[in-house]
């Protein structure tokens, strides 16, 4: 126990003889120094408490202006923050015990009091009172924190099944304090039938393996409504490894769960909308590509034939050369045919629809390498992946856009393309040996390539990551769930 500084004592005693005995006993106490103030009336003592500071009160229960347990009660009203030692005669022992029950630290008989006993009682009374005040303040802080967090406490003995539920716990489930008894099984019965086994399993794992206990589940309220709660808890184990106590809390997270569900629904709706836009865009590109290839291409071919026919019928009409030279016209028409085919192919490669994704990618890479003189190393091991129409288009466009970005911005001479199954994903990875950039840089507002790739990946519930550093090129990795990539059975 810590050494006490000077102890300020208020002695409330009307008997001069008893007061002298106590003063003499205090003079022999060697544990601490003291300063004693003496009052003979309770009213006088209460006035002194209001005007001065004391560490402890020594109180006689038989005073001219107060008698018995009422003396202590009156003093408590004026000095609830002070520890009190009750002084009794032999006939007052029962009253002394009553005073302890109502908050006094101890009682001493005035007839056989000793300096050692008095010193010990004063030290212990001050220390116990200090601990009690600290405990009360800690409890108040804890209660304020719990109420501020709207948390409901529970305290459970796994060995006996005894449980305590705080008023806030009952409030969360809509019950008054007297309406929901402290019954462990009754609390389990409130858990949603679809969640109760999950709760039991995690609780058992916490007790047996000492892993964290933190879970969200639904609980039935008094109105038969189910609310989502977030629960946490911690057990205590004895030396034999047996859990003998578990304490935790719950908070109502229904509004957050509803907001999360609304957000997920909104995100899913945006994904569907984005997928529909991508699909409509691809369908429109396909339509335009076919019209360019079939209608416009055929019209150009017909124009070339018609020019040739008219030229043969016209005869020699050029007064300077004596003949008609249509070579420039033919060359221009040929260029237009090539341009129309290239534009149609860029809009939607017919090979993607006719032969499938992997042959279309190989054709595109050959065309890409020829056009940009960039060598592409292919590691394509995806023959066992049954790509559906949406994923075929998405993967082709991702590869197309990524390689186009390499050609335009990377300054690379070599690219590695990987497409493979890595359960439960299809992995698409494009790595170049270009100049790279700072990893934290974002694409410029006008850079729609990466944005378009992210939209396509999101539409298939996938993930896209980019890793880069100055001088180390770009590494783009796409993970697509096979469940979204492969053709679904009818």
Task: Walk me through what this model shows.
The protein has 490 residues and is α/β, with parallel strands linked by helices. It folds into four domains: 7-144, Response regulator (Rossmann fold), CATH 3.40.50.2300; 149-252, PAS domain (Beta-Lactamase, 2-Layer Sandwich); 263-348; 355-490, Heat Shock Protein 90. The protein is built from 15 helices and 17 strands. It has helices at residues 16-27, 42-51, 69-78, 93-101, 115-148, 167-172, 184-189, 196-209, 254-314, 327-347, 350-354, 357-372, 389-410, 448-459, 482-485, and strands at residues 7-12, 34-39, 56-60, 62-63, 66-67, 84-88, 106-109, 151-156, 163-165, 213-220, 226-237, 243-252, 375-381, 414-422, 425-432, 463-468, 474-481. The strands form four sheets. It has a five-stranded parallel β-sheet, sandwiched between helices. Helix 1 (16-27) packs across helix 5 and helix 9 runs antiparallel to helix 10 (327-347). The model is unreliable at 316-322 and 440-446 (pLDDT under 50).
How would you summarize this macromolecular structure in one to three sentences?
With 490 residues, this protein is an alpha/beta fold. The chain is built from 15 helices and 17 strands.
Q: Look at the helices and sheets and give the structural class.
A: alpha/beta
N- to C-terminal separation?
80 Å
* Sheet with the most strands, sense and barrel status: 5 strands, parallel
Number of helices: 15
CATH topology of the largest domain: Rossmann fold
Mean pLDDT across all amino acids: 83
CATH-assigned homologous superfamily of the largest domain? Response regulator
* Unreliably modeled segments: 316-322, 440-446
Side by side, the strands of the main sheet go: 2-1-3-6-7
State the CATH class of the largest domain: Alpha Beta
GO cellular component, one term: membrane
Protein name: PAS domain-containing protein
Organism: Paraburkholderia azotifigens
Pfam family, one: Response_reg
